[in-house]
Amino acid sequence: MSELVAAPDKYVTEAFEPFKARLRANWMKGFQALMKYDQFSVRGYMMSHGITPLDDYYSIQWLETLTDGSGLYDQAFAEGVIDDLDFDYYTGAQKVDWYCIDGGTELLPIEMNKKLKMPLKTEDLGKRVTKISLIRDDPKTPEDDVYMTVKVDSEKEERKYMTVFATPTLACLQRIDLTGLELLYEQKDAIRSLHYDTATKVGMQFEYAW
């Protein structure tokens, strides 16, 4: 138990590193090997594969407390491995330059929009979408022509697009009418059940306990 307290990273490495090494060597083969364990959460994999000395809930909970964010061991094991690989893909002499966007990631889509041949206008932003549909066999269009329509609140006519990237949160996406998109059951279930990792940590210091 003393080693579990003193060197928690050792046990996380023992669980993740064999899969990370395969992914570095050959992404497709490594991913296929990882998918064999996709039924496990991180916690479930550790408890069933003898990762910690006790293999119990509390020791693995201790690892999560020291090495990761609260609740992240409940995510898929495959997600945990790939998440851990993000900043650990290149090893040895390979050098990686990391960059930070001064002003926040909000600037990324703004600058991308400027590169478009027909950039979005200010009046196109901040609209509320109520419905997205896939249109097949429209008699008004050439044969085999497939396109998508977007219904914007307060607009009478639906907008027509060849491709639509839906980027709202999944909670917001559930409030958009997607019945015309021919989504598979698995896609609908993912929209309903997936949740987000914590993206921001805020530290607050007080002069006295409150």
From TrEMBL:
Pfam assignment, any one: Amino_oxidase
Highest taxon above the source species: Eukaryota
- SUPFAM superfamilies assigned to the protein according to its UniProt record, in alphabetical order: FAD/NAD(P)-binding domain (SSF51905)
Q: Which InterPro entries match?
A: Amino_oxidase, FAD/NAD-bd_sf
List, for all copies, the residue spans of the domain called Amine oxidase.
32-207
GO MF annotations, alphabetized: oxidoreductase activity
Question: Which residues, if any, are the signal sequence?
Answer: none
Report the protein name in the record: Amine oxidase domain-containing protein
